[in-house]
């Protein structure tokens, strides 16, 4: 494996990281919005969110990616490969994040919400001041788990020609007739990425984890 | 600080009339009427399932009664003028803000410190100045004997301490009416005294209080009026001396007997 080949793998890693981070940054809040719609049983929107989650959870990321990249132009929406990649990961992870947020909301203490109500707190204020600060702490491990799944499934975007880690590795292997070294390096990069995420989760829990426990 | 001649003529702080509430087929409240005058401590007694807690929940409209009205200082709760249109959340919140509630299970917010629990609603709901509210909260903590727990999280407190924080949190809203929903029922027996002591001093300081309780001693010594509920109705009400010494109804006699022998 040449130095140039190694550079192209690193470039692939850069693409995987930035596309994944974009998917996480958009998909986590989007999932929360979906979860809130369902939790609050908002008329019309809550059933739509339910359908969305069922559909997206049962669509493979590769299929979704192809659908977005090749089908959207048919209805007049031009989209470049990188945007299609980010959209794929966002829409996919949002469905799973929705379920994580929702289970956190459903298990949230009714007593605490009731206390907030009797003290005159509005719904949005209760969410911002009472629910969310505790919710994200309980949901964090599951959310990070979903993030690591997203990083690994992000290789689906190779199907529309985005040169992420795995695609770069395949290309190098095809050029050199020696697929083992690039594949090993690619695997190593994934492992490092996932370890970094898990490490960040541990760190966050250590710094912000003090306020757990029942009142 | 107790009732003066002027205050005696004041409008009732709380006026409940003809409250009915049914869950599915079960009648939980059956035409309950009750008034609490300014500065009064009224104790609601009765066996479990008699409707005491539901009545309290109807007062701050956590539970919507099927019939009847609740007036806080003459203002109707839950319904707009005319009594047909339900209040919006904002209007309801404005009225709830004027009542402080103390819960059986404390319902403190575990992610906030003791001080943060107390100042949360005054700062974010009543929009009062933070430094002012903090000073008041510190004074309240001093009063309930927990000045040293200012920065502790609720999970580090005993049940009695949690409930005293709960009382301080309710007082920080400067409410016109304090509602206590079995404030000592979830406590270890040896922790009941510290909470009762705080409630007594509040009562003596002239707070208006409606207290659902099983603490007969507290009711006897502190209440201005004792109300016995059973099966969703008020069976007997009167001053504690008469109620405990010489109850008028057979039901009250039975109820008291069980508590004396227990």
TrEMBL record, chain A:
Annotated ranges, domain ABC transmembrane type-1: 13-202
Family annotation (Pfam families): BPD_transp_1 (PF00528)
Subcellular location: Cell inner membrane; Cell membrane
Alphabetized GO MF terms: transmembrane transporter activity
Keywords: Amino-acid transport, Cell membrane, Membrane, Transmembrane, Transmembrane helix, Transport
GO cellular component: ATP-binding cassette (ABC) transporter complex
Membrane topology qualifier: Multi-pass membrane protein
Major place of residence: membrane
BP GO terms, sorted: amino acid transport
Segments crossing the lipid bilayer: 12-37, 49-75, 180-200
Protein origin, superkingdom: Bacteria
InterPro entries xrefs: AA_ABC_transptr_permease_3TM (IPR010065), ArtM/GltK/GlnP/TcyL/YhdX-like (IPR043429), MetI-like (IPR000515), MetI-like_sf (IPR035906)
Family listed: Belongs to the binding-protein-dependent transport system permease family. HisMQ subfamily.
Name the record gives this protein: Amino acid ABC transporter
Organism whose genome encodes this protein: Ancylobacter defluvii
UniProtKB/TrEMBL annotation, chain B:
Predominant location: membrane
GO terms for MF: ABC-type amino acid transporter activity; ATP binding; ATP hydrolysis activity
PANTHER family membership: AMINO ACID IMPORT ATP-BINDING PROTEIN, L-CYSTINE IMPORT ATP-BINDING PROTEIN TCYN
Protein name: ABC transporter domain-containing protein
GO CC aspect terms: plasma membrane
InterPro entries in UniProt: AAA+_ATPase, ABC_ATPase_HisP-typ, ABC_transporter-like_ATP-bd, ABC_transporter-like_CS, MetN_ABC_transporter-like, P-loop_NTPase
Transmembrane segments: none
Similarity comment: Belongs to the ABC transporter superfamily.
Membrane protein topology class: Peripheral membrane protein
All copies of domain ABC transporter, residue ranges: 14-256
SUPFAM superfamilies named among the record's database cross-references: P-loop containing nucleoside triphosphate hydrolases
Pfam (any one): ABC_tran
Location of this chain's protein in the cell: Cell membrane
Alphabetized UniProt keyword annotations: ATP-binding, Cell membrane, Membrane, Nucleotide-binding, Transport
Keyword NADP: no
Record organism: Ancylobacter defluvii
